[in-house]
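for the recovery benchmark. tokens below, seq after
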């Protein structure tokens, strides 16, 4: 999978290179009244666990400013301004009795007075929102730009004209929040319980070119405003409408966040809020070396770890410095703001290892203090369970740090799944990978997957077939962990490296035919894969052992694998034959307490009914099939 890592690096190089910008002109000293450009956060809640909230005002001629709150219920504590007068930090205290409504911060500087608008929001209710996620969930990863266009009026917005062209793979294609809202019934029917969207921050409004090719940040990983919603996707109102509509039908929503870096077009790059806001500057920084293993290495010097923690991705993506107190505070408040504003249930955090682990501890502590049921999964891209497990929270490691991060993606298991079920290598890899579960503080909470937006699709692997994809889905949906599906894999979409793995979902655009959101629009093959996965999500919902059960391996050979998922009251047995010929497997079920004469049936319908005899089960498994066996009622 090293080639995939290289592909991702290449895609980041292209992103970064494409966005290089000229110096702005607004930094020259000017005279006159102070000016407010941006207030972050623009609002805060009564009764919040963070109080005072630190408000950062970006503007001009703010040097020497005094700040006072206009209206009741707000007071201003410590104020600091940077030497060039372009950033002001004010601690704003929200009284427990403050009445919700608009206020402002009155900024008095040498040249006059300016008003920074600020709103007091009512206390947050935790009722159906902010639920977290667990093995009871099935996550569905989608890219809003590539899933469905529900609002053609925002395809080419005035704020950022010229970034839309469905014929070009690096341009916006028009997908949006309304498109997701329109297809919530589809997702519900498929049996997923949570939607993970790639980032919805406001990204660059500029088209950039590299090697004569146009690039946009349709993928969302090039933020220019951490308090803005990308105009191609909708507004904060439509985002909230999406989250509310999802919650009404029992679907959660997971936000994709990036705390390691900004996009190259972020205004901070030319004028950082503090001298140490970034690690280095655009002109003078160190390159990212991807040596994530040094972070778990007790022998690594801080100097050796520095290029991994402080390097700029692809030598160009501005690396935020979480050791800068203001920057860390900004990032923590920003996370709590999004959760409160949109009602997200969880976060997927990008590029986890490239940020100091003590920051994650502080960040997670702040999240859980305000939202105790919330959950976070971090991206630690590596095939080595020793390294991936080092970042899951739950216990302090040798560096004294417990990251408290609930979950990490199970890349090691993903790579094994692809090798075994696409390429047809020995299925033993799966069990060997799972044998390393002792390294994780909580392996049940790992997010498992067979593909994502950074990997070529399963169906593009050498040797991939529909049978292999169905076996991979069967394993994913019945093994331990929190399964995450990648949009389009449910209809066996093809696609190579980024951006080919991010094709538009067929039928997601007005007048697109065929429409694979409807059964009638799917080919026979697409329908077979869809129905198989749908049956699995529904089995997972019905059978508690598939979600919460302990996993016990019962039989293993080069190409057959039998395991059980067991709770105090029920056992489910999964038997997989990865060989292109029929196989007979026989195994003991003594550990499962199934009495002789118990009759088991295959809930996937491929295998015959079977009876426990002398504490054993014998199964004849057709070529490249799997069965999910439960005791017949
Ligand atoms: Ca649109
Ligand atoms: Ca934008
Ligand atoms: Ca970093």
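predicted aa per position
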């Amino acid at each position: 999978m090293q080639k995939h890592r290289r592909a991702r690096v290449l895609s980041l190089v292209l992103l970064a290179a494409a966005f290089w910008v000229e110096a702005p002109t607004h930094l020259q000293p000017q005279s006159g009244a102070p000016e407010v450009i941006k207030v972050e956060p623009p609002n805060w809640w009564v009764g919040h666990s963070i109080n005072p909230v630190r408000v950062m005002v970006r503007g001009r001629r703010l040097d020497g400013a005094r700040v006072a709150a206009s209206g009741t219920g707000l007071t201003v504590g410590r104020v600091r301004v940077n030497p060039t007068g372009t950033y002001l930090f004010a601690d704003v205290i929200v009284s427990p009795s403050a009445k919700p409504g608009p206020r402002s911060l009155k900024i008095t500087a040498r040249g006059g007075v300016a008003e920074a608008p600020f709103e007091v929001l009512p206390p947050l209710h935790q009722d159906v929102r902010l639920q977290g996620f667990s093995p009871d969930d099935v996550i569905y990863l989608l890219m809003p730009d590539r899933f469905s266009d529900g609002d053609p009026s925002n395809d080419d917005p005035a704020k950022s004209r010229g970034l839309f062209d469905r014929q070009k793979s690096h341009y916006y294609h028009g997908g949006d929040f309304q498109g997701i809202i329109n297809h919530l019934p589809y997702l519900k029917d498929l049996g997923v319980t949570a939607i993970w969207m790639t980032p919805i921050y406001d990204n660059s409004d500029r088209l950039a070119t590299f090697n004569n090719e146009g690039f946009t940040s349709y993928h969302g990983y090039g933020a220019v405003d951490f308090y803005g919603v990308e105009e191609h996707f909708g507004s904060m109102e439509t985002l909230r409408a999406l989250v509310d509509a999802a919650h009404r039908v029992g679907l959660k929503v997971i936000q994709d966040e990036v705390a390691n870096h900004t996009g190259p077009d972020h205004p901070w790059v030319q004028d950082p809020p503090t001298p140490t806001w970034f690690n280095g500057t655009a002109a003078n920084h160190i390159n990212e070396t991807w040596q994530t293993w040094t972070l778990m290495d007790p022998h690594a010097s801080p100097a050796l770890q520095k290029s991994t923690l402080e390097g700029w991705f692809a030598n160009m993506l501005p690396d935020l410095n979480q050791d800068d107190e203001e920057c860390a505070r900004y990032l923590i408040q920003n996370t709590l703001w999004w959760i409160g504003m949109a009602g997200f249930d969880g976060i997927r955090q990008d590029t986890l290892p490239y940020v100091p682990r003590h920051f994650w501890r502080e960040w997670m502590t702040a999240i859980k203090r305000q939202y105790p049921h919330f959950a976070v999964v971090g991206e630690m891209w590596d095939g080595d369970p020793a390294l991936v497990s080092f970042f899951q929270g739950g216990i302090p490691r040798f560096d004294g740090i417990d990251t408290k991060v609930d979950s990490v993606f199970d890349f090691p298991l993903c790579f094994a799944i692809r090798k075994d079920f696409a390429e047809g290598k020995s299925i033993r890899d799966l069990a060997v990978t799972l044998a390393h579960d002792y390294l994780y503080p909580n392996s049940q909470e790992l997010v498992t997957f067979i593909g994502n937006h950074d990997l070529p699709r399963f169906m593009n692997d050498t040797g991939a077939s529909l049978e292999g994809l169905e076996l991979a889905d069967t394993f994913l949906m019945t093994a331990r962990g929190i399964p995450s599906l990648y949009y389009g894999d449910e209809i066996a979409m093809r696609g190579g490296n980024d951006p080919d793995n991010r094709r538009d979902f067929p039928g997601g655009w007005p007048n697109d035919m065929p429409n694979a959101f409807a059964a009638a629009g799917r080919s026979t093959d697409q329908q077979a894969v869809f129905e198989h996965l749908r049956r699995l999500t529904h089995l997972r919902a019905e059978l508690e052992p598939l979600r919460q059960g302990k996993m016990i391996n019962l039989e293993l050979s080069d190409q057959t694998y039998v395991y059980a998922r067991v709770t105090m009251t029920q056992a489910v047995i999964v038997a997989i034959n990865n060989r292109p010929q029929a196989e007979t497997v026989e195994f003991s079920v003594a550990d499962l307490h199934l009495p002789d004469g118990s009759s088991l049936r295959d809930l996937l319908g491929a295998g015959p009914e079977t009876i426990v005899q002398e504490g054993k089960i014998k199964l004849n498994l057709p070529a490249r099939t799997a069965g999910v066996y439960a005791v017949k009622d």
